[in-house]
Amino acid sequence: MATASACGDPALADLVRAVQRADSAPAMLQATQALAASGHPDAAPHLVEVLGFNNPGAAVAAVDGLIGLGPQAVEPILTGLDGHNYGARAWAVRALAGIGDVRGLEVLEEALATDIGPSVRRAAARGLGRLDLAPLAAEARLSVSERCLVALEQGCADGEWVVRYAVVVGLESLAPALHPEAERLQRARRALGNLEDPRAEEALVVRLRAAQALERLAAEGPHG
Predict the structure, then answer these.
(1) Which end of the chain is more exposed for a tag (fewer CB within 10 A), N or C?
(2) What's the total number of domains in the chain?
(3) Structural domain of residue 90, as residue ranges?
(4) Among 99, 130, 154, where does a domain finish?
C-alpha cells in the first residue's frame, strides 16, 4: 500500500496508517470502514488496494466506499486492477457496477462474458443496465447502449439462474437508453420474452421476473 506520508491531508494519512497497521481481520474491517466513511477522493487508491487483501469484510467496506466516491473512484479502480489477483478484480467489478460510469464498460463486458464467479457475472449484468449515459453525446449513447445490449443478450444463455435473473434486471434498466431505436428495444423485449418462456427458461423465478419486466415496459410505452 502507498505510504500514509504520501497523503497530503493529515486526517486521511491517519486513516490510511490505521489500515496499514491493522493486525487482525476485525481491525482491518474497522479501519477500512473509517477510511471509506471519510469520503475523501484521495482515499480511492487505498481502498482499491484493500480489495486485494483477502479480507471479505474489509473488501465489502472498500467497495461501499468506492461506490460512495462515485466517478472520481473509477480511474483509481481501473489503474489498480490486478490481473493476477482474481479476488481483487472481482471486487473491482462490483465497485464499477455500483458506480455506473461508462469507463467501466469494458471491464463489465468482460466480466459478464468470462468471469468464473456467478456473483461477479451477476454484478456485471446489473451494472451494464445502469450505466450513466446522460453525459455522453447522442452517437456515443447509441454505441454504448448497443454494446450493453449485446452483452446482456449473450448473458441470457448463462448457466446460472442468478445471472440470468440479473440479466433481466439489466435489460429492463437499459430499455430507456435504447430509445429511439425501436429495433433495439424490440431486441431487448425479445430477450426478455425468451427468459419468460418455460420452454427456454427452467427457473421459475427468472420467468416471473422477466414477465414483470415486460409488463413494466409495456406500461411505459414505446419509449421503454
Answers:
(1) N
(2) 2
(3) 9-99
(4) 99
Lowest mean pLDDT among 139-143, 170-174, 202-206: 139-143
Do 42 and 124 fall within a single domain? no
Q: Map the chain to HEC letters.
A: CCCHHHCCCHHHHHHHHHHHHCCCHHHHHHHHHHHHHCCCHHHHHHHHHHCCCCCHHHHHHHHHHHHHHHHHHHHHHHHHCCCCCHHHHHHHHHHHHHHCCHHHHHHHHHHHHHCCCHHHHHHHHHHHHCCCCCCCCHHHHHHHHHHHHHHHHHHCCCCCHHHHHHHHHHHHHHHHHHCCCHHHHHHHHHHHHHHHCCCCCCCHHHHHHHHHHHHHHHHHCCCC
- Is the CA virtual torsion 178, 123, 52, 38 positive or negative? positive
Assess if residue 3 is contained within a domain: no
- Residue ending a domain, choose from 99, 124, 144: 99
Rg for the chain, CA atoms, rounded:
19
Domain presence at residue 2: no
What is the C-alpha to C-alpha distance for residues 189 and 206, in angstroms, rounded to an integer?
14
pLDDT band of residue 9 (cuts 50, 70, 90) is confident
Q: How far apart are CA 165 and CA 20, in angstroms?
A: 39
The CATH number for 75's domain is 1.25.10
- First CA to last CA across the chain, in angstroms? 45
